[in-house]
Amino acid sequence: MAENLNDCRVPCKMSWDELEAMCRLERLHNDQLGVNRANVNEYEVEFLCDYKKTKEEEFYLVKWRGFPESDNTWEPKRNLRCPKLIKQFHLDLDKELRRHKRRCIPKKLDKEIALFLLQKAKVRQSLQRWEAHLNQTRNHPGRIFVINDVDLEGPPKNFTYINNYKVGQGIVLNEMAVGCECKNCLEEPVNGCCPGASLHRMAYNDRGQVRIRPGKPIYECNSRCSCGPDCPNRVVQKGIQFNLCIFKTEDGRGWGVRTLQHIKKNTFVMEYIGEIITTDEAERRGHVYDRQGSTYLFDLDYVEDVYTVDAAHQGNISHFVNHSCNPNLQVFNVFIDNIDERLPRIALFSTRAIRAGEELTFDYKMQIDPVDTESTKMDSSFSLAGLPSSPKKRIRVECRCGSDLCRKYLF
User: Fold this and answer.
1) Is 231 annotated as a binding residue?
2) Which residues form the signal peptide (predicted)?
């Protein structure tokens, strides 16, 4: 007896690009893959690998999407309809020729230059895939872009993009027990709204800009509050609002982050996200990271130095933000749905207006003026963790921020 297989689903081991190429090869039409009678004979250029020219014509070695490199073919420029890829190829070529102190494009490229251009195209493609993955993973409005015009480094290994804290073993986040009953939290706060319940003032103005001094905590409205999502006391919880770009720095500082939009002074930019671990575990990991020459440990020391955020392998875009001794971002402790003051959320706000295209930085050894703090329990040092009090036990890390106020060493 024949079985009913209408609802049967079998995972396909071929990618969409490979399926599309197969359809074109077999002249099959498929609406989902965008292959139809009008374009079945058209093939998509994945990237350009090499270049040569004769007196009459220019040729490019083409890697076809969905086909192995063994099927690459030389095509005359007149047959290609990929102006952006051609423009990018020549930008890479011109930059590489300048590096070799050559001015004119030769009739045939050297093997070394052609190999570099091939590797560059593959790296750019891998970064584009990573960029797409980041934007599929993010839960915030601001888009993420990725670019590397410096070298052949691709996406970071062993790094997972997350949108919220990942709680380590044995750590519990206690949800907020009660919320406010305000109808207008900014203009008519009931009993001081959520900040008032903790004897603090409202942190934001009507434009969502922070108006309290660094060192003072921010208490936002939470999931149990009567106010709606448009409440002016809900800022950090709305996530990153600006389009940001992860880029490779040219001065040896690794990856960095720049804003693609103008940011006003005192505006929320991003949170520092990672895995919450105990201070003892942070100390252990800190020694490991020291040997690797980097650390992403951030102490949560608002009232007690008990927990640490580790963004080394799990984090958001803040993982890539560089240090500066004269930063344009400032750290604030924020409480929303969690009442444990040992576990604040770490929010980064702009210290001044930041131009589109400018790199974002914060001070890894940020110091808060004690006169600005509201609690005598507050540890005024918002520093990266994993560093014992004795500097003799640690190798000093040289600072490369380039600021006029540079302290020469990070730690």
Assistant:
1) yes
2) none
Helices (H), 58-110: 83-99
Q: Is 227 annotated as a binding residue?
A: yes
82 is in an annotated binding site: no
Task: Specify the CATH number for 141-368; select among 1.20.58.60, 3.90.550.10, 2.170.270.10, 3.30.450.20.
Answer: 2.170.270.10
Average pLDDT across the chain, whole number: 86
Q: Is 49 annotated as a binding residue?
A: no
Q: What is the gyration radius of the CA atoms in the chain, in angstroms?
A: 27
Pick the CATH number of 9-134 from 1.10.20.10, 2.40.50.40, 2.40.50.140, 3.30.300.30: 2.40.50.40
- pLDDT score for 374: 39
Q: Is 325 annotated as a binding residue?
A: yes
* 180 appears as a binding residue in the annotation: yes
How many residues comprise the chain?
411
pLDDT value, residue 376? 26
Per the model's pLDDT, the better-predicted residue between 299 and 269 turns out to be: 269
Per-residue pLDDT, averaged over 90-118, amounts to 93
pLDDT at res. 197: 81
**Would the CA dihedral through 132, 138, 141, 143 be positive or negative?**
negative
Is the confidence at residue 79, as pLDDT, over 80?
Answer: yes
